Amino acid sequence: MLFHSLNHQSKAVSFKEATILGQAPDKGLYFPERIPKLSASFIRDIEKYSNEEIAMEVIRPYVSDDLSEDELLRIVTETVNFPIPLVSITEGISSLELFHGPTLAFKDIGARFMSRCLGAFVKDRAEKVTVLVATSGDTGGAVANGFYDVPGVEVVILYPSGKVSPVQEKQLTAMGKNIKALEVEGSFDDCQRMVKQAFTDVELNKKLFLTSANSINVARWLPQQFYYFFAWKQWNDKGNPPVICVPSGNFGNICAALLAHISGLPAKHFIAACNANDTIPRYLETALYQPSTAVATLSNAMDVAEPSNFIRILEIFQQQLPALKNRMSSTSITDEQTLDTIRKTYSKRHYLLDPHGAVGFISLEQYLDKHPHDNGYIVETAHPVKFPEAIRLATGMEVPIPDSLKSLLQQPKKSELIPASYPVLAEILSNI
Ligand SMILES: *Cc1c(COP(=O)(O)O)cnc(C)c1O
Q: Is 410 a member of any domain?
């Protein structure tokens, strides 16, 4: 399988090259030359397959021969080695819990897969690879955890100062070793802008081999399809496929869901649930792409004004906006609605949502009100303990801290505070 750049100026490359490069030389996102179709029997008999077998079936066409069958199986097995249950909240709404991995957020899956692929691909290189990543919250922790101590790989993480939760901050600053955390005095969009500038800096790229671990990397994006098939395996009413609602920021996760759908994943409809950062809901309504600046919300991992993966979604639908709108709608939910949903779902259903899941829950509830014969699930992207302030505001209670987090929270924060200025970042990268 080859991957071509969506800017159409660079040559098509293999999965291995796309993983190492992150972004195409023409700054486009890589996209597969064709979308594989899974067999009807695989979809029908999915309950007979283990999660590892499902993941292999989904990812193998993309990876081709770049990894041996044994190596790919090892990577896939290590990627999905925690529970991903589909839990019922109400009669119509379930929650696909993606927060049982090491950093308690769904990004563990993409980050674990990517770090292991990259580790395998750079094993025999003389030159070190530097992974540069901007995070609005959870990417940093998942990437730090996934790449910790991987030989030949240095990791530099930029995060907006004061805009990630204390647990998130510890997850990306406490590791040390080959993981360097930069605390940027600015927004996530500033961090993302600085990272993009580093990739276009010709002088810098002569000195070091830079790659990205953001959701634009195909090795992070593609494995996110796995759990939609795990959900289908657990879906009881196979005659009535689910409405799938994905809390969205950079739109990588929903983009993986849509890709899975084109490959054969049954679904009635998709909802990209956004917070006050409503660039895409407005775009779908008006057909005018007018990104605003990012605003801070309680669901901070979705505080993105210019979702980088949206261009891939347009490509999946061959730039046909009506076809896209037919499959996917997008909502914008306020912080007040988010808190209200956390409170109500906890008191009525005894289910504690995190703010991102809450944005999803209310969006799905609104949709099902209008489509009473449908059922669906939200993708619960993070554990509520990562957002104690929102939970306190909504319910007045403290989320008990899991043991795995207690020791982490006691470790010192190791980060460097820098202004939102590209020259400062360039200087730091030059000295790595
Ligand atoms: C990253 C993240 C999101 C948004 O995912 P995208 O793929 O960027 O749309 C949602 N919720 C949580 C908890 C996240 O960490």
A: no
Q: What is the pLDDT of residue 38?
A: 98
Per-residue pLDDT at 133: 92
pLDDT of residue 275: 98
Give how many domains the chain has, as a whole number: 1
Tell which one of 100, 109, 138 to mutate to probe ligand 1, the residue whose CB is within 8 A of the most ligand atoms: 138
Residues labelled catalytic: 107
Looking at the domain assignment, is residue 257 inside a domain?
Answer: yes
* Structural domain includes residue 263: yes
Tokens 């080959």, residue located: 178
Structural domain contains residue 297: yes
Residues of the chain with pLDDT under 50: none
pLDDT of residue 201: 94
Q: How many CB atoms lie within 10 A of CB 100?
A: 14
Query: Ligand 1 center to residue 247 CA distance, Å?
Result: 7
Helical H segments across 294-371, by residue range: 310-316, 321-327, 335-349, 355-370
pLDDT for position 64: 94
CATH number at residue 96: 3.40.50.1100
Q: Are strands 243-247 and 376-380 parallel, antiparallel or unpaired?
A: parallel
Distance 22 CA to ligand 1 centre (A): 19
Rounded distance, CA 46 to CA 38, Å?
Answer: 11
pLDDT at 253: 97
* Phi then psi dihedrals of residue 152, to 5 deg: 80, 5
Spell out which residues line ligand 1, taking CB within 6 angstroms.
105, 107, 137-138, 215, 247-253, 301-302, 356, 381-382
Residue 385 is part of which domain span? 83-105+221-395
Angle between helix 403-410 and 166-173 (nearest 10): 70
Ligand 1 centre to CA of 279 (Å) is: 15
Strands (E), 107-237: 129-134, 153-160, 179-185, 209-212
